[in-house]
Design goal:
four-stranded antiparallel sheet, 547 residues, alpha+beta, globular, 15 strands, five-stranded mixed sheet, binds zinc ion
Length: 547
């Protein structure tokens, strides 16, 4: 599995491994709906020591340069220049020479790479702020002004320097003091969200443009030759498999297997949207990957195996923690033994290799399940809970850790890509109370759900819990009141009001007989619990910035 040659186009998650987007394209790209790209990975044969040294040298010089750029340009005063060529041009004009020995071509790519990371970092902050705006301001004009301010880096910059951004199309509705109030709030919110700045942490990849490498074929093998950093000549690396390599590429070094990966992108043709197909809701689950609103559970053949593997990893992790503690306590008393523990029991290579194997299996599995789902259902719109703000609840055990950001990120990214390429549109919806509300009568009660069984305490509808949730998600697609950023509290109010209204109009039928089997001590059906579990859609900003 691990050493299969990926000659088949295989897209990747956004992040470190993504082949670079050229500067001009970055300028042109709109925030949403950027051109659909597929990353193809080609693996190399094992490198010898000399080649490994040359590549490592290149990569570490590049990483150091990129990191230096990140440190300099993450500052707010450069924010408005992020999406232009201004910084690059001024460096060129001042005769900039890379202190790490990179040629002009290479440091420009490192700069581009760094600016992209800073852009992603700011987009993440802005995303969280938008959520708060929805909660804080209910007036349409106020919201409009706040969103308008966050839309442009120049405006954010002036906001952060204490000014009140001007020129908004709807400003006639807001006087200066109203705008001042919003600007002050946004300033405070942004300052709160600006956490640690992005830095280079992995130091294992480099971007190359078309003039920094050459691809050729010899005796049926594809080779890539890359210009060396300090001496003349090129490093020639044989590749497994074959694919067109062109334009900007990324080289990723795997120090454990002593190989490189060549990441190259190609455009993907988008199928036209299937407007005549049905909409489907999707609820991400625990015992399977996801459940759709038709009641089908989509998982992979290996899902159980993956779960048992995750359990194993968890157990090993616990053992390692114990050993770490032991090693720490022995460091003074018995340094030799501590060293042996570090070397033989706490080494990272094997663990990392297993982990990456596990990760690639999850990726394949997620892919398979999503492909099958799209083939069978052929949906027009897919409603999915908004995963960007999700953080796993602490203490929920091993599975919440397995479904950590990483897996959720993969699922979300695969869904986005596959649905776009296959003619469906993926839409994030507000998931608050989606697992506690009856899809039939709209009655909301945490007690409607008992583990994987949903039984409405009002109308008696019995459903699989995940199916019920995915039906609610589907309904949110066209919900006029519950939007993505509507606060959890407001969602609850809306749901309660709706139910009451329907009950007064006599549209809700209560069938107490069906709930007879359900006894809940001290709680009567018809009362809505105040203590409500926080749902998926709430939580803090936790999606990472890959650098
Ligand atoms: Zn019901």
């Amino acid at each position: 599995m691990h050493d299969t040659v990926q000659t088949k186009p295989k897209p990747l998650e956004k992040g470190e491994h993504q082949a670079p987007i050229s500067n001009s394209r970055r300028q042109k790209r709109s925030r949403r709906g950027a051109g659909l790209k597929r990353t193809v990975i080609l693996h190399s044969l094992e490198l010898n020591t000399g080649k490994l040294k040359d590549i490592s040298q290149l990569i570490s010089a590049y990483a150091n340069q990129k990191d230096a750029f990140l440190v300099t340009y993450a500052h707010i005063k450069f924010l408005d220049a992020l999406l232009s060529n201004r910084l690059r041009d001024s460096l060129v004009a001042s005769g900039f020479k890379s202190p790490f020995g990179l040629k002009a071509r290479a440091w420009k790519l490192a700069l581009n790479d760094a600016l992209q990371a800073i852009d992603v970092y700011w987009q993440a902050i802005i995303y969280v702020c938008k959520k708060y705006i929805f909660r804080k301001f209910s007036d349409e004009a106020e919201r409009h002004y706040a969103f308008w301010t966050l839309k442009d880096y120049k405006r954010i910059q002036s906001l952060m320097s204490g000014q009140i951004p001007d020129g908004e199309p709807l400003k006639s509705k807001l006087d200066l003091s109203a705008r001042q109030k919003i600007a002050k709030y946004l300033h405070r919110r942004l300052r709160k969200e600006v956490g640690s700045r992005p830095r280079v942490c992995l130091r294992r990849s480099i971007c190359l443009d078309a003039r920094m490498y050459r691809v050729f074929d010899e005796k049926g093998t594809q080779y890539i030759s890359i210009t060396k950093l300090f001496e003349r000549g090129r490093v020639v690396i044989p590749l497994k498999g074959r694919h067109t390599i062109s334009g900007n590429i990324r080289i990723v070094l795997n120090r454990i297997t002593q190989t490189i990966e060549v990441h190259t992108t190609s455009d993907v043709l988008r199928k036209s949207l299937r407007t005549n197909s049905p909409d489907i809701g999707v609820d991400l689950g625990v015992s399977e990957l996801f459940t759709d609103s038709e009641g089908i559970k989509w998982c992979s053949e290996y899902w159980d195996e993956l779960k048992s593997y995750a359990e194993k990893v968890n157990a090993t992790g616990k053992q390692r923690n114990k050993l770490h503690a032991l090693e720490k306590s022995l460091r003074r008393r018995n340094p030799n033994k501590a060293r042996r523990i570090r070397k033989f029991n706490l080494g990272k290579d094997k663990m990392m290799a297993k982990k990456s194997q596990f990760h690639s299996r999850i990726k394949t599995d997620v892919n398979t399940a999503i492909n099958r789902f799209l083939d069978v259902r052929m949906p027009h719109r897919i409603a999915i809970e908004d995963l960007r703000g999700y953080s796993p609840e602490p203490g929920k055990g091993w599975f919440s850790r397995l479904l950590s950001f990483w897996t959720l990120g993969i699922i979300n990214q695969r869904f986005t890509f596959k649905s776009q390429a296959g003619g469906s549109s993926l839409e994030s919806v507000n998931a608050a109370y989606s697992s506690q509300t009856c899809p039939a009568c709209g009655y909301l009660d945490p007690l409607n759900r008992k583990r994987d069984r949903f039984q409405c305490l009002n109308c008696g509808t019995v459903l699989d819990a995940d199916t019920a949730a995915s039906r609610n998600l589907k309904a949110r697609l066209d919900d006029p009141d519950i939007q993505l950023w509507t606060s959890t509290k407001r969602v609850r109010e809306i749901l309660v009001q709706r139910f009451e209204k329907r009950r007064l109009e006599g549209l809700v039928v209560e069938t107490q007989a069906d709930t007879a089997g359900l006894t809940v001590s001290g709680k009567t059906p018809g009362t809505i619990m105040t203590e409500v579990r926080r749902e998926w859609s709430t939580g803090e900003r936790n999606f990472g910035v890959w650098v």
